[in-house]
UniProtKB/TrEMBL annotation:
Domain N-acetyltransferase, chain residue ranges per copy: 4-150
Keywords in alphabetical order: Acyltransferase, Transferase
Assigned EC number: 2.3.1.57
Coiled-coil region(s): none
Family annotation (Pfam families): Acetyltransf_1
MF-aspect GO terms: diamine N-acetyltransferase activity
Organism: Schumannella luteola
Name of the protein this chain belongs to: Diamine N-acetyltransferase
Lineage: Bacteria, Bacillati, Actinomycetota, Actinomycetes, Micrococcales
Length: 150
C-alpha cells in the first residue's frame, strides 16, 4: 500500500466507497447513536468527504466535519466516519486517512480532532487509540468521546 492518496468523494468514487466490505461484526459500529442524533446538525458546506485510493482502487472512505461555529465542541473538528476495506485493514490506510484529516484540521486552525465510538470487541477502539486518540469523556448514549491533540 505504498501508493495511497486522497480524492474528494465524487460520482465516480461514491459507489466504490459505499460498497467497501468490512470484516465480520464491524457493521454494528458504523454509526454511533451520537452521530445518528446529530447528523441533521451537520452543514453540508463544512463536510470534508474523501476516499483513500491505493493506485486506482478505493480502499477507504472518511468523512470529517469542520465547523468552528458548532454549538457542541465535539462537532467542531470531527471524524464522523472512517471505513477501510477488510483486505486493506492493518496496512496503514486508516492511519493515512486520520493523518490527512488531522493535517486539514491544522490548516484550518483547529488544535484537536474528535471522534465518537462504541466499545466492543469488533469495534474501532484499538484503532483510534493506536492513531493517537484518547478518551476525554462519554456521550449521553454511553459511547466514548475521543480527541486527537494536534
Amino acid at each position: 500500500m505504498a501508493d495511497l492518496r486522497l480524492e474528494e468523494l465524487s460520482a465516480q468514487t461514491i459507489a466504490a466507497a459505499n460498497s467497501l466490505t468490512l470484516k465480520p461484526g464491524q457493521e454494528a459500529f458504523l454509526a454511533p447513536e451520537t452521530y445518528t442524533h446529530n447528523e441533521d446538525k451537520i452543514d453540508p458546506t463544512t463536510t470534508w468527504a474523501r476516499v483513500v485510493l491505493d493506485g486506482d482502487e478505493v480502499v477507504g472512505y472518511l468523512v470529517g466535519n469542520f465547523d468552528e461555529e458548532a454549538s457542541d465542541d465535539f462537532r467542531r473538528a470531527a471524524l464522523w466516519r472512517i471505513n477501510v476495506a477488510a483486505d486493506a485493514q492493518g496496512s496503514g490506510v486508516g492511519k493515512f486517512a486520520v493523518h490527512a484529516l488531522a493535517d486539514e484540521a491544522r490548516k484550518r486552525g483547529f488544535t484537536r480532532v474528535t471522534v465518537v465510538w462504541e466499545s466492543g470487541e469488533e469495534g474501532p477502539e484499538r484503532f483510534f487509540q493506536a492513531v493517537g486518540f484518547h478518551v476525554i469523556g462519554e456521550t449521553p448514549y454511553g459511547e466514548n468521546l475521543g480527541a486527537l491533540d494536534l
